[in-house]
Amino acid sequence: MVRPMPSLWTQRRPFLQGLSIAIAVGFVTIVRPAAAEEVANPPGPETSIASAPSTDPLGKSLPPSVEPADLPVQDSKVRELSEEENEEGADASSEEPGPKPGISISSSSDQSKPAIADPSADNNKKKLLELVPWRPPPPAADRWDWIQLSSGEWLKGTIERMRDDEIEFDSDELDTLHLDWEDVVQLRSPRRNVYRFGQFLVVRGPAVMEGQVLTVMVGEVKQEFPRDDLTAIVPGADQEWDYWSGNINVSANYRSGNTDQSQYGTQSWIRRETARNRARFDVTGNYGRLNGEKNEDSVRTNLKWDIYWSRNFYITPANFESFRDGFSNIQLRLTPSAGIGYHILRGKQDLEVEALVGYQGTQFGSVVEGESETAQNASLTLGVMSSWELTKRVDFDASYRLMVTVPDVGDTSHMLVTMLSIELIGGMSLGDLDLDIGFNLERIREPQADEFGEVPKKNDYRLTLGLGLEF
Fold it and tell me: Which of helix, strand or coil describes residue 56?
């Protein structure tokens, strides 16, 4: 029996089946890695370390002088995804493409394997920021001054003054600082301070100091000066008030009952200071009544003008003092004088000495019959003034003055004035409110007897407690 010939389909079916299996295996082999790569590199804007925002690893803004473009891009270290992560990426191929939360993806075109940023890159960036020196912005139209110390630290605040190789700097956080001028390596001030060079050259304007050169913007012209020639900096903006400082003190005492007593007093001063000149006015007054009768009435004023000839030495071309005290039998005493002075110490502890030569004229309240009602003498005044900043809120001031008169040495006088100031409220717009505790001693060698022959006591002591406004 002749068997029929097999058809063409029957002959080729095993071959086609094998070919189909081979195509399916190849398709799976090609598609699965492509799906994983699609998950690792989703479509969208490229992301890299170089495009990170201008913040440091701690989330703080970079300083104004450091821009992201200035920082060299670190080569990010990458690691390969494990086979398990690849399988998870393949399973996610059917999901909407996009990066997983919390993973930073690198999209560099030369990388053929999916990668994430190494956490150690943050440490490298932090070290890089430490190597970039921080500088404040150029002086702008604001009220802040900047100084850099030799240690590299920058301080922000207000320059109060500089004299005698010491700068007084007011910081909101650190309060008033007294720093050696040699420790300041840079200065940036947008304010129109007054800068004094040598004995007579004075300029005013915003300034920048770097190295040994101080540049002052005078009008629209930049002028450069050697740092070593600078002798003083005094705040001097466009307002006259910036030249003034002072302390207004008021004390009071009241008592009623078996004894009716009231007492009022002041011990105040006000000063105007520029780069070369210093003028100061002091007033001390006391008035009291006991059981309706006046038992105290005295006023002392002093007006003094100093001209600085060098960093420490100054000339006093005019000093004028007036004094009256009816209970010391002095109706009026005037003492004009002139002299010189010198700063021995300056800073948290100030020490200053002076010597004045002048004339003293005294009008007595009354005298014994036959004696003169006036006295005229030459005077020599020797004075010592000191100030200590005991703490940030406690200051102590003291002064002693000896006035010798000739030819009548009986009018020779001594005066000791001390004041302990404790800051109660600081940072007010008008100044600081202080609690002032004062002690004064005045002595006259030979007081003048009145018309009844009564001789006033030689010594007067006074302890006061009051409030003072320091500005």
Answer: coil
Asked if 195 and 204 touch (Cβ cutoff 8 Å), the reply is: yes
Residue 404, token pair as written in the block: 């010798």
In the numeric block, which tokens belong to residue 97?
Answer: 């493409």
- Cα–Cα distances (Å) from 56 to 119, 125, 137, in that order, read 14, 8, 19
Q: How many Å apart are CA 236 and CA 470, to the nearest integer?
A: 19
Q: What is the pLDDT of residues 23-67, one digit of tens each?
A: 665 555 544 544 444 444 444 444 333 333 333 333 333 334 433
- Contact criterion met (CB below 8 Å) for 394 and 422: yes
Structure tokens at 283: 């007033």
Q: In this structure, are 424 and 374 located in the same domain?
A: yes
Residue 393 above 90 pLDDT? no
DSSP state of 151: T
> What's the total number of domains in the chain?
2
Q: In whole angstroms, what is the distance from residue 395 CA to residue 434 CA?
A: 10
Residues 148 and 116 in one domain: yes
Whether cis (ω within 30° of 0) applies to the bond prior to 72 is no
Count of beta carbons in the 10 Å neighbourhood of residue 178: 15
List Cβ neighbours of 272 (8 Å cut-off, separation of 6 or more). Answer: 243, 244, 278, 279, 280
Residues 97, 43: Cα–Cα separation, whole Å: 8
Q: Which pLDDT score, from 0 to 100, does residue 219 have? A: 82
Backbone angles phi, psi at 189, to 5 degrees: -135, 120
40 and 105 Cβ atoms separated by less than 8 Å: yes
89 confidence band (pLDDT: 50, 70, 90): very low
Same domain, 212 and 316: no
50 domain-assigned: no
Which of these three, 211, 237, 263, is where a domain ends? 237
64 or 422: which carries more pLDDT confidence?
422
CA angle, corner 334, sides to 331 and 339, nearest 5? Answer: 155
**What mean pLDDT is reported for the chain?**
76
Q: Which of 14-23, 42-51, 194-203 has the lowest mean pLDDT?
A: 42-51
Residue 343's nearest CA partner among 403, 301, 386 is 386
Choose the final residue of a domain: 237, 258, 280: 237
Q: Is the pLDDT of residue 430 over 90?
A: no
Which structural domain, as residue segments, surrounds residue 170?
63-71+112-237
210 and 297 share one domain:
no
Q: How far is the C-alpha of 223 from the C-alpha of 203, rounded, in Å? A: 9
